[in-house]
Amino acid sequence: MLTFVALASVLLLGIVPEQTEAIAIYTGWERHALLGSDIRLSCSFFSWRLTSDDVTFSWTYRPDGSRDSISIFHYTSGQAYVDNKGPFRDRVEFVGNPGKRDGSILIKNLDYNDNGTFTCDAKNPPDIVGRPSSVRLLVFETVPIQAGVITGAIIGVVLGLLVLIVVIYYLMRFLVARRVFSLSVSKHGKKKREGSQARQIKV
Known about the structure:
This protein is an alpha+beta fold.
């Protein structure tokens, strides 16, 4: 009876608890950067709801070979809070646009010690349930050629060789056919001349 009364009260007063839906967070998978350069780490999210005024973004960093993560950035209530004591002191800048669901950060003056995994988490209340997304950063003295570039170059060379082989094949066929035609015409002309000479001798 009490349960029925409670439900009736909720319906009558229009007090319907807001549903919490999942939020999908996106970052890159792996980024390469040069020593001493700056890099933008992108973070965005998808939510069925309009962007809330209470949207939040949080970034954490876990160095390669470590199990522990440290907080390096947090955005909430329209304010950005950056790391003031850790390894990214004075090197993290918020370059996102919360109104467009962009929580990107810029990391300046990269060092080899910055190699590691950066994880972004976002909340768009009441959508607060979602899996954080991570991107791995690799800092090099010279950026290596990625496997995709090498694969593309190999495929390009192979296709180029195949096209060249086909062109040579048809060119050879054309030259052979032309040679055969020339010989046939030459033999036909020779026979025609011999027949004409034979008829002249008989006369």
